[in-house]
């Protein structure tokens, strides 16, 4: 009976460690994705602030020959 309790305890411990490991990995991936997304948003905001978007639009139209 004592040997069976040890086996159950070991099984529960291994299962809990596996669950915790999976949760930590999922959290790390979500966190990394969020950080990457925030960096991309900051880059986009910097680009929009650093350039006159109307001027860029007109230059693009002229390059493509679509100027009205």
Tags for this model:
68 residues, 2 helices
Fold and architecture overview:
90% of the residues lie in helices and 0% in strands. By secondary structure, it is mainly α. The radius of gyration is 28 Å and the shape is rod-shaped.
Strand-helix topology:
Elements: H1 2-50, H2 53-64
- State the shape: rod-shaped
Quaternary structure: single chain
End-to-end separation: 89 Å
Instruction: Give the domain tally.
Output: 1
Count of helices?
A: 2
Average predicted local confidence, pLDDT:
86
Count every beta strand, where a strand is a DSSP E run of 2 or more residues: 0
Structural class of the helices, strands and pairings? Answer: mainly alpha
* Rg calc: 28 Å
The description of the largest β-sheet is:
none
Low-confidence residue ranges: none
**Helix content class:** over 70%
Beta-strand percent range: under 5%
Order of helices and strands: HH
Can you give me a brief rundown of this structure?
The protein contains two helices and no strands. By secondary structure, it is mostly helical.
């Amino acid at each position: 009976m004592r040997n069976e309790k040890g086996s159950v305890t070991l099984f529960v411990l291994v299962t809990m460690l596996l669950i915790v490991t999976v949760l930590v990995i999922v959290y790390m991936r979500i966190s990394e994705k969020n950080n990457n997304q925030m960096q991309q948003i900051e880059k986009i905001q910097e680009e929009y602030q650093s350039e006159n978007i109307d001027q860029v639009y007109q230059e693009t139209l002229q390059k493509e020959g679509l100027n009205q």
